[in-house]
Amino acid sequence: MKKRLLSFWEIWNMSFGFLGIQFGFALQGGFMSRIFQDLGASKDDIPLLWIAAPLTGLIVQPIIGYLSDRTWHPKLGRRRPYFLIGAILSSLALFFVPHSSALWMAAGFLWIMDASINISMEPFRALVADKLDDSQRSYGFVVQTLIIGIGTWVASNLPWMVSKLGVVDNPVPGEVSNSVKVAFAIGAFVFLISILYTIFTTSEYPPEDMEAFLKEKKEKKNTFVSDMIENVGKMPITMKKLGLIQFFSWFAFFTMWSLANPALTEFTFKAPVPLESAYNMNIEAQKVAFEAAGASSQEASNKVGSYMGVYGLSSMAFALLLTLYTSKRRINRKYVHMTSLILGGVGFISMYFIPSPEWLILSFSLIGIAWGSILSMPYAMLSSSVDPKRMGVFMGLFNMFIVLPQIIAALGGINLAYKLIGNETINAMIVAGISLVIAGLCNFLITEKKAIMYQE
Description:
73% helix; membrane; MFS; 0% strand; mainly alpha
């Protein structure tokens, strides 16, 4: 079916819910490690505590993709019911996670939060492919990336913003910072409102033959597991090649989310989280020194979060340029993605060599170009290579190539890799950079013309 070409604002409305989703992911990516450290986790334990995020994605996204392909609600359509369920659960989890009183509680909330965000996120990818003609796919995913960039930048700066507005961070051992608590509460509100905006402003195409759709749904005897096995077997070769690119890309970004805060507060800002065991709290001078070191570390963490927000701002600017270009012209998705990933790799590696913290703006700006491309080009290439009737399930299965590298990283891959270079945590950023460069070069494997550039 030849689909009607949509206007910019129609595409904006259908993608706006991603603002809230990215608020959730940016707060999680920028500040969960800080929450873990506030609650007493060592930096080497942090990647393993993060394992909830990729594991829930591995389980939830294929299931939601499969179910949404087989769903049709008279009022909410195919994908929007899952937006709504995920939004409600995610908002509750976002609000409560920084109020955790113990490390196990924070890790548990991370499981709930990430599962809930994934319930909303997976159908958004499929919605773009559902609604847009193939000629607008690159444009649609780029607009989505533009909104993601806005969300990343604002959410990453929230703790810094609220601290500037007068919220005081008292460095109390075993307690999460006040600025983080307020930021997560704001994120919960934005998540719910932005998803509701998309639900109320966007319609969906019903199945072309509703009777046949309902009959197939009723008569189909295959189970979810057998369907998944069948779909994995029918995975297009382009999807497998994109999977290799995704593997190295997401290994790099998981490394950043889990270890950038300890790496940069220690190496760049010279303000690591103080260990209470290193101070004699019975001596007033030692107690004062501990509190001063804690305050300095909290301030450094706010600044790291703010600098990390630059990659959202950069991805937004990159996406805006691509939006203006792809609204009228075609692009070579393969070479855009390759160049972007290599630039991001240079950004990560540069963190080791910058002379002062201000240079992190440049590092994260380059990383933002890679991030903007990761959120658009692989999905545009994939959507041109799979059966439209199985768009949801293939988008869900594609998530395997995102979560598997993160699971490997969380189970010790990051710690093993960066310690081959040296014991300083900043070496993890070098590993992330090398991984992105490898991902960029893997684009040479993509050869299908329709995936590389839309063909009439």
